[in-house]
From TrEMBL:
Coiled-coil blocks: none
Family per similarity comment: Belongs to the GTP cyclohydrolase I type 2/NIF3 family.
Highest taxon above the source species: Bacteria
Keywords (A to Z) from UniProt: Metal-binding
UniProt-recorded name of the protein: GTP cyclohydrolase 1 type 2 homolog
Pfam families: DUF34_NIF3 (PF01784)
Amino acid sequence: MTRTVTVGDIIRLMEDIAPPKWALANDKIGLQIGNVDKPVSRVWVALEASPDVVEQAVSAGVQLIITHHALLFRPISVLDTRQRRSRAIQHLLAADIAVYSAHTNLDVAPGGVNDVIAERIGLKDTEILDVTYRDALRKLAVYVPTTHLEAVRRAIGEAGAGAIGNYSHCTFSSTGIGTFLPGDSTTPFIGAHGVLERVEEARLETIVPESLLPQVLAAMRDAHSYEEVAYDVYRVDQPGPAYGIGRVGNLPKGMALSAFAEHIRDAFGMRHIRYAGDGDLLVERVAVLGGSGSRWVEKSLAKGAQVLVTADVGHHEAGDAWQDGLAIVDATHAALEQPVCAVLADRLQRMLHSVAGDCGVDIAAAPIDVDPFHWT
């Protein structure tokens, strides 16, 4: 029997990829229109729910549109359906199509907007341009009979505990003697009612991001042999995993700024592109930020970039950046961000298949260009 998949099921997968807590302050993200309990069989991923996207989604029988740009970013006081955008909202409601938006949280997310841009450019050794979120860390110490030490160690590692830099499953264990006296209502794995039991146990310690603590504790309990698990959770002062906006990385081989701008134009399917800076400048290290990124000039310089690839850069911003030593390649907003839609749709499809099997839900990038700019 095919499992029914709902809007809420897809949202949960989406929030595994780009948790809402990663969004920048005052961003408008999450469910914008619709019912989380509605079953879905067709999902589109789009840069935005433009009137053209909505019109074709209604015709194609789509039940959920996942967008990068929020449909309802500013408060709406009037829905005048003589206007196209208002009619699009009317059509969404009439067709019962849900809209969910992941904006700066998808910019920040590993494998999200900025990683897709960096990969398409061909950057190597990428790192975060500007850290905007750190997960708090917790120290977990659990007492385990030595017979089950490896099972618990493996379970909590698979649940995400013990990640330090590029290493995973990092733990420490020491052995000693644990004591307990089972009460009359217990069903002890070891020992008997009313008899003080002594067991060789290990104290297993590891580090856990706070956001993963519930699933790590659940995995610990499932793998543990005891009816009542003895464990401690401590606050620690070390900074947790970093997440942030933008990426910076190195080109496989340096090239002149003018040639690099042409490379960006071709990589993102544009007819023309503009840049600010000396066309002969040797570009080796590149900062990228999808969307309007001119506020990150100083961060790009601090990271050693010779150029920032972004969009929506004004005259004074471009001039100031170049005078300060940073070249600018200014692509259109949509051209830079559109490629994430197909990547995200494929990722969601694979994630859904892993949890729901062949459930009959199709997730695809919306087959519509939403870039408002055209070149003659």
